[in-house]
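Input.
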Amino acid sequence: MRMLVLSALLLAGCASKTARETHHEQQTPLTKAPPARVSQAWSMFTENAASHYGVDQRLINAIISVESGGDPDVISRSNAVGLMQIKASTAGREVYRAQGRHGQPSTRELRDPAKNIDIGTAYIRLLQQRQLAGIRNPQTLRDATIVAYANGAGALLRTFSRDRDRAIAMINEMSPEEFRRHVQTKHPAAQAPRYLWKVNTAYRTI
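Output.
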């Protein structure tokens, strides 16, 4: 059963969006590798980042597995770069601002595995501490983080209410299963439910 799940995940592709298919994929043996192999390859960096930012290491590894298949050189058509497929002008800029830095990371910086994982993990922490702060159920928070990582926290919260506090309150009234069904039926991005499924599948197999 575990092998069937892994096969389904890998056949689904490692990118979260069709637009994230890249021309670099054939250049590394880690591309589209099983999640456990990706986790082992970058464990030193993910362990450090997880400890520093207080983020679940398995979640970091699962996102890397789905986003890039473990290939640090991947650059998508939308200019998402590296292991965690970070866009410099959005997530990268937001992390820089939170750290008191000006501008945004360069492509060269984002292709560095240690820096990419650090910035990606810092972004996960920002999502959880700011936009998604107040979600009480740990599983629901993880699912919300996954959806927000790929499609933005605002897009997710607006499916509940334009008022952030009201949206969080509505999420807290749901079970994790109800939240996932809501994403499946209400999220404006058609790929959001599939991305959530892929990351959670990778998470369980690491």
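The first strand starts at residue 80 and ends at 81.
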